[in-house]
Amino acid sequence: xxxxxxxxxxxxxxxxxxxxxNLLFTANWLNERIGRVLTTEDITQQQYNILRILRGSxxxxxxxxxxxxxxxxxxxxxxxxxxxxxxxxxxxxxxxxDKRLVDITxxxxxxxxxxxxxxxxxxxxxxLKGVTETEANTLNQILDKLRxxxxxx
Length: 153
What we know:
This protein has a domain at about 45-120: Arc Repressor Mutant, subunit A. Helix content is about 60%, strand content about 5%.
């Protein structure tokens, strides 16, 4: 099934427009499927992303540092962190180096949740197994190339 059938549109301005629409449609398709897995633990993709960032960090991170590493740069990181605090998955403390900053760290409950969600990694990977590893590598190279191009007004 092609993008034409998925969105019921036969004509595109050119292959670049078709590619852009296809990328957006596919990203939303993937987000929806991953979201289904995460809802079993009452967690959003942005919350999961923050928990994974904190688990991967060897030191506490400020909300600014977290935002820089997030997949969705438009997320309201402070608000998401506050929700994670209410769920007791992260904690914040005054930064020892710069009192103007707040350090965010993963709690044991947060670490336990991320580790529990790791059991779904194979299920999430399976969503993308419709392509070969070689095709995935090629697509990764193309996507990296697209993001490395200078912005055009």
